[in-house]
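Design job #97: recover the sequence.
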């Protein structure tokens, strides 16, 4: 794993005390609202807390939540994350990537967790980097409180240079998805003289390849369901750290300013990542295409359960679509990425 993710481990050891549980739940709710909207968060948490059960002690509540996140991450998401990792490894091999593959944190953390085990077998070195929309000067429609803190262009350049990205002739970039706003900024300002290959778990942008459309090709899975699969990552894998909004200079070094997330995001987020790790280690020989298609079917069944009010570790449909997305795509440059 990237050294930067290890910070998560150091801030998650203290158990939530009974008198602190209410505060932790309120903080967790606010964090999810910033990703899903308030209405989605209320419904999702009502399903989750019903699955955990009533009249539990603080320790039992947190522990049951950890177990549920581990199990669903392992059983439902694990096969898809492994399949996605194989898909990306084969794609990067075909286009001639060598060495480093960069993962946009926080959202691509589940993919990086799997890649730390899988990618070295293909000769790749997965590296996590904290690059996001606010740092690139892009606002957030769902969470308008997340405001970019000035022009970070020069700081991002230094940060990417530290990670070795600017010295590569071909840059491999992985994110969960979905419009391509960040890759556009990065290609324009930082990788203009390099061949840049962004690949997503799910993409709204037909000019950026993605795993879920590849897997679902020829099946009955709808665009709404594929979008829902991507949005559900933010529920099942709550980040143990908050989204960094600043890069800061420490001497000659540039680092993201990282802060711990709520206690429940820490506990349950790490439990979910451990579920992914356990699945990957239990399937070191890989996963077949047929098994991936079966995993897709399982996930679609979980969406139906969520529609019926049962917590299954996924959403019942996708979160609100970006209102400016269609216009953004209509103006997206051609021949921006790859060869």
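Job complete. Output follows.
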């Amino acid at each position: 794993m990237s050294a930067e993710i290890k910070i998560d481990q150091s801030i998650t050891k203290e158990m939530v005390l009974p008198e602190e549980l209410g505060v932790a739940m309120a903080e967790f709710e606010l964090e999810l609202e910033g990703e899903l909207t308030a209405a989605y968060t209320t419904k999702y948490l009502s399903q989750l807390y019903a699955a955990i059960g009533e009249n539990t002690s603080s320790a039992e509540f947190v522990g049951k939540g950890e177990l549920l996140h581990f199990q669903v991450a392992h059983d439902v998401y694990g096969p898809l994350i492994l399949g996605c990792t194989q898909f990306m490894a084969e794609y990067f091999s075909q286009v001639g990537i060598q060495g480093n593959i960069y993962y946009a944190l926080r959202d691509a953390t589940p993919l990086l967790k799997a890649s730390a085990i899988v990618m070295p077998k293909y000769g790749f070195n997965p590296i996590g980097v904290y690059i996001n929309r606010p740092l690139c000067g892009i606002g957030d429609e769902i969470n308008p409180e997340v405001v970019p803190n000035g022009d970070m262009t020069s700081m991002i350049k230094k940060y990417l240079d530290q990670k070795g990205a600017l010295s590569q002739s071909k840059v491999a970039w992985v994110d969960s998805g979905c419009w391509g706003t960040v890759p556009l900024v990065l290609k324009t300002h930082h990788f203009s003289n390099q061949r840049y290959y962004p690949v997503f778990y799910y993409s709204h942008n037909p000019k950026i390849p993605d795993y879920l459309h590849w897997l679902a090709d020829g099946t009955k899975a709808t665009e709404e369901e594929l979008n829902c699969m991507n949005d559900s990552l933010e529920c099942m894998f709550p980040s143990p750290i908050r989204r960094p909004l600043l890069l800061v200079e420490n001497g000659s070094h540039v680092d993201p300013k990282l802060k711990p997330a709520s206690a429940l995001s820490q506990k349950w987020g790490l439990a979910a990542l451990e579920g992914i790790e356990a699945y990957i280690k239990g399937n070191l020989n890989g996963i077949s295409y047929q098994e991936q298609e079966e995993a897709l079917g399982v996930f679609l069944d979980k969406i139906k359960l969520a529609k019926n009010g049962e917590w299954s570790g996924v959403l019942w449909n996708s979160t609100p679509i970006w209102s400016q997305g269609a216009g953004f795509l209509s103006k997206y440059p051609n021949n921006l990425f790859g060869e």
